[in-house]
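=== Structure Prediction Worksheet ===
Name of assembly: unnamed complex
Input type: mixed (protein and possibly other molecules)
Chain count: two
Listed entries:
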Amino acid sequence: VTGQAFIALLPELISTGFLILVLMAGVFSDSNAGVAAGLAAIGTLAMFGSAAVLLATGFSGSYFGGGFVVDDFALYFKLIVAGSAFFAVLAAARWSGRTGDAPEYLTLIISVVLGSMLLVSMRDLFGIFLAIELATIPSYAMVAFDRSRRESAEGGMKYLITGVIASSVLLYGIVLIYGVSGSALLQDVAGAFSGAITPVAVLGLVLMISGFAFKLSAAPFHFWTPDAYQGAPTSAAAFLSVGPKAATFAVLLRILLEGMPDAAPTWTAVMAFLAIITMFVGNLFALRQRNVRRMLAYSSVAHSGYILAAFAAIQGGGVAFAVQAVLIYSAAYAVMNMGAFLVIDLVGEDTKSYNGLVRTNPGVAASMALFMAALVGIPPLSGFFGKLWIIIAGAQSGSVLVYIVVGALVVNTVISVPYYFGIIRNMIFEEPTTDTARTKGSGGVRFSVYVLAVLTTLFGLLIIPLSVLVGASGLA
Amino acid sequence: VITTITILIPLLGAIVMLLLPDEERLLRYAALGISAVPLALALYIYFAFGDDLGVAALSQDVIWIQSLNIGYRVGLGGLGFGMFFLSTFLTVIAVLASSDVQRNLKQYFAAIFVAEVGMLGVFAAQDLIMFYIFFEVTLIPMYLLVGVWGDENRRQAAIKFFIYTFLGSTVMLAGFLAFGILADTYSMDALGGGGGLSRTAQVAVAAPILFGLLVKVPAVPLHSWLLDVYVSSPTSTNVLLSGVLPKLGTYGLIAVVLPLLPQGVEPFLPYVAAFGVINIIYGAFVAFLQPDLKALVAYSSIGTLGFILLGVASGNAVGLNGAVFQQVAHGLYSALLFILVGVIAARTGTRRIEDLGGLAARMPWAGGLLALGALAAMGLPGLAVFISEFMSIMGVYETFPVQGALAALGIIFSAMYLLYMLARVIFGPIERPAYEEIGDAGPVEMASVVPLAVLLVVLGVFPALLMSIQRPAVDAVITVIGGS
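=== Predicted Assembly ===
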């Protein structure tokens, strides 16, 4: 059994190992940031590879008294986390090397990865809380890491304060649920949420969802998002908006499906309202932004709303498709949003700096156009499939409230066209400015952008089959 | 497999265009060569499989997403083949007629080829999701063609075009998804006759699909995106924009809504016929008032699209044959007129009708072909448009006499404005001394318009060339909807 557990923990053990290695690289070779970057890149690839091997061999099992589980679902999200971390490392390498803090920054990335990978495998409410904190606390430092910009410190501070409040709310909810059920294991919690649900349990559920809503930047708990993403180093914003976020969605899905399946009518209704508010708030505020980082931050709020819409559809005949929708949307969002954020590193954060990009830098312009079109949801790009599955799940749920949610999703898709296409318009129709002509960023960022553009385009062929396969096996 | 190859060659062509060096002559010849390949394949299909398009060599059925029963399903049918052929043909014409585009040539041709992929895909799709995906594939390249290479007003026109048609197609997708979920498949073959849906369900599904398709056509009053787009576009984009794009909508009506939702569409048919009449009469009146020659042609093009709607609404074999035929005939004549407007505007430097006049004396060929196009538009016997307009009216008169009679009246209006336009543009005394110097259409321009004129005449005299292909498919549709 012990040997099995080592294999099950392979991705986490690898990341712990590389965490120490990268940190040590900083201590022993202060002058050479390249060593740390190389180690971190190899490490994230090794984590990705180990999770992929476990998934390919169909490895599954439950360890540590049922508190830690390895199933297809968890491994799929580990792939997303490790994959997005790999691109974040590539993007961060040169930037953080310049400031001389490369090993520290890369260590932070790897510890977020470790926390997120543990998170998706946790089946114990306190374990979940610890894993969330392990993923979140380094991310405060990541956001505030850019000491050359005041916004970075400001964003980090706001993120820290709201994050700590969110954690306390989440913990309070978890404690109440623990008090009602007498156990923190999800299968025991399920007992307390069957039959008539006590008011204390409902309070615990609502507080816990509120805490998650903070972490997922769902409205009305989203205030920190624009400031944090605007202030953060690009690689941090790119990674935090996709990797840990996907993991948080995954564990929320696990808690709801394994821990409180009988309370589905309650939490789907909560999710439906959250989804509607979040979609509208995200898109309407994104429309007014002149800064691409802020725009993408509000866009990430809107996309959280879309994924929450899938949560609302977990009822009636929509359950299987809704779970698949979360899997597909998380991967789709990871490739297109990561790409869009990394382009900021190459071009700039003012919408004007995109003017005429197609003439000065056609490859990057074409990639950005693909990411923007994918974020709108134009077929056959990645975002289209995410929305497709959500609509299908919603249509099969058989609930009027969910039909309204799906209607709101369609309306929001159209609302979002102007701001995403504003970038495309600037790139193509405006005259290049002096700003556009300046090329920034490293080859690593450029490489990441192109790879992500290819993944966004071929999403339907490369990633959908895997997502559907994993979705079919469901939660173990 | 042949169908798939034909669809994918333009995509390959787009990549090749982007890789070629930036030399104008080379790019133009390469684009012409690439665009000729799908045309040759379409001709091959016509001659080799013309009597039975259902053969296995032409269709493919690969399951893509098992749990949803979505598949890569393509194949050619009698309903779509005419437009499939016309799309390849008009792409060649558009490449020939692209002399007014000077900047960023290779990107221009690449965008045209990507649009061609979408067009061919729609006319070959046998799966609703494939239909939708190909439908949207045309969107971005057309947005770019208008927005990058159009005139001063191009940016607004392009974004307007995008938002309108994207809204329309999103609503259409919602209809498709509801349909597929209820029937548990997206295969158009399996969905024939309604896929087992009740009448109420069919009506509920048909409504959003109809809305999306009618925006694409566009049916008046959903047409407000159109004028800016047509007027702002370069000539060769106009060829595709008026020749093929509206047919994505009408083809959807003919090949998706009618055979797959026969009971659902039935309550809407009188309104579709009414839309057709409104298009014809509104198009004719507004065309009459246009000071700009290109705007006049644009409204004329909207007007004659109305006959397709009429034929769709008729629900009988005569009318539906007319509608399918009109898709092709309309594409031929509107492409012809748009190119000639471009030729005239390039020579005289204006498109204002009142500044033109007496052009026949200086440019007999272009003027003569403009007259031919205008005569085709008003439905002169012997030209292809006559056949289909006549059949559409005949067909719809049986079902909806009032709409049929009004549509016939519309033909008279269209004769009025077209003849009036001809009188002011090509006949009469030469308006300005400067026009004494201008020459006739050059050889490349002639090469782009003469094939169109020839096909208009050939199909007008031998309509059976196309009718024989479409008739069995039309009969099958009629059997499904229970008409005569």
